[in-house]
Each structure stands twice: as structure tokens, then as C-alpha cells.
Design goal:
The chain has 244 residues and is an alpha/beta fold. The protein is 50% helix and 14% strand. The chain has a 7-stranded mixed beta sheet, with helices on one face. Strand 6 and strand 7 form a beta hairpin. Helix 1 runs antiparallel to helix 2. The protein is elongated, with a radius of gyration of 30 Å.
Length: 244
């Protein structure tokens, strides 16, 4: 869609220059043979630009309409809710991961086949920080059946400093996805902690707050019990929240 914009922008000043040059030549009282030939070429070239300029603007408007329409559909499709299947593109998406002092790039693909809990948090969130030891314990206790991944928009520099200085964070072995935007776009929220439960089949089973991923709840889930703890919906109408 950038090409027609560039062509249209460049065509306008070019057309003005050619038109001025053409008029100057045309007003010449005694044009020579070469000058007459140049006038004919300039006249045809000017018509060609005018013709293509109209086509360019028409093409640009069509492209713009289609792009806005398709982007709206994509935006709707990329938001995942309870009951949705996580698409392959999200499993295969490459993430910058901090784990035990090292920065690596890998996808969520390695966690397929087990319960995956995505915990969206930040270094300024007190309740999130206090929950880190229990989340780490879940990773150690249910390593073959459940995996907790901590997702943050924080940079490596901010996270490293935090892990070094915060008592709750010391010794945490869980992977941290850094500088995230992809997972945040699929699971939008207004408050953290924000936890996503994805089962072994890749289906979103629950979206909860900080009280979702506890050792007690994970024990029930891995045993096949249904999820019965409070769910979270940051975008629910206020009237519904008041009724609850």
C-alpha cells in the first residue's frame, strides 16, 4: 500500500513542473523543429501522468478501504477468550526469554502438551511480586504437567536489577518473557496480575487474577477436576460487575 502513496505524492509536483515547462515552450513564438517535437512529447507525457494519477488515487482508496477492513477483522481474531484454541502462529512466535541469568530466544511450542499458565505481571505490581515464590513452587512441583511463564513488558535491564534486589524474586527459576507485545495483544487486560490457563490441547480454559495460579488449584486441575475458581474479565460492563 506504500507504493501508490509514493507515486501519488511524487506525481503531483512532477505534473506541476512538466505543466509549467510545457506552457513556457508553447508560448514560444518561433519554436524550432526540435522544440515542436519536444512539445508533442511533453503533451503526451502530461496526459499520461494525469491518466495514471487518477488510477493511482483510485487504487490507493481501494487499498486503504480493504486494509482498514481487514485490519479490523485481524484485530478481532487475534484476541483470545475462554474456549478459544491458541493458533499455531502464537505457539511458534519467537520470544525474548530471561531464564536463570541468560537471555534466549524461543517459542511457547516447547510447552505444548501440558497445562500452560501465562502470568502477566510487572516489577511495580506488589501482589504480583509476592506471588512469585508460589508460582516458582508450582513450576518445581508440576514440571512435567504444568508450566508457568511470567510475561512482562519490562526490559532485561529492569528485570535483572529487580531480580537482584528484591527478596521475593531471588532464586526464581521460571522463564520470563521480556519486552512482550505479542501475548499482550492476544490477551488484552487492564489490570495485573492477569493469568491465562491453556490446557494440554491448546485451549484457553480460564482467565483469572492473582488467586488463580495457586498450588491448591493446580493440584485440582492436573487431576482432571473442572476449574471452579473466580474468573477475571477486565472488559465486562460495569453493570454486570455491580450485580455480582
Amino acid at each position: 500500500m506504500e507504493k501508490p502513496i509514493i507515486i501519488a505524492v511524487m506525481a503531483v509536483p512532477c505534473l506541476l513542473l512538466i505543466n509549467c515547462f510545457y506552457l513556457n515552450l508553447k508560448n514560444n513564438d518561433r519554436p524550432g523543429t526540435l522544440m515542436q517535437l519536444l512539445l508533442q512529447v511533453m503533451y503526451k507525457f502530461r496526459l499520461l501522468i494525469l491518466k495514471n494519477l487518477a488510477k493511482t488515487f483510485l487504487f490507493f482508496n481501494i487499498c486503504l478501504f480493504l486494509a482498514l477492513d481487514s485490519s479490523g477483522q485481524i484485530a478481532q481474531k487475534q484476541v483470545l477468550s475462554i474456549g478459544d484454541t491458541v493458533p499455531g502462529s502464537l505457539w511458534n512466535s519467537n520470544n525474548t526469554v530471561y531464564k536463570e541469568g541468560k537471555i534466549v530466544n524461543h517459542s511457547l511450542e516447547q510447552y505444548k502438551g501440558k497445562l500452560l499458565i501465562l502470568d502477566f505481571w510487572s516489577t511495580w505490581c506488589g501482589p504480583c511480586i509476592r506471588s512469585l515464590p508460589e508460582l516458582d513452587s508450582i513450576g518445581k512441583m508440576f514440571g512435567d504437567k504444568a508450566q508457568v511463564v511470567l510475561v512482562t513488558k519490562n526490559t532485561n535491564e529492569i528485570l535483572s536489577k529487580f531480580l537482584k534486589n528484591n527478596d521475593y524474586a531471588k532464586g526464581i527459576k521460571l522463564p520470563f518473557i521480556l519486552n512482550d507485545s505479542i501475548l499482550n495483544s492476544h490477551f488484552p487486560h487492564r489490570s495485573i496480575s492477569h493469568q491465562i490457563f491453556i490446557d494440554s490441547k491448546g485451549i484457553v480454559r480460564a482467565i483469572t487474577g492473582i488467586n488463580g495460579a495457586t498450588i491448591k488449584n493446580i493440584q485440582k486441575i492436573v487431576k482432571g477436576n473442572p476449574i471452579n475458581f473466580p474468573l477475571k474479565d477486565d472488559f465486562a460492563p460495569r453493570s454486570n460487575l455491580n450485580k455480582e
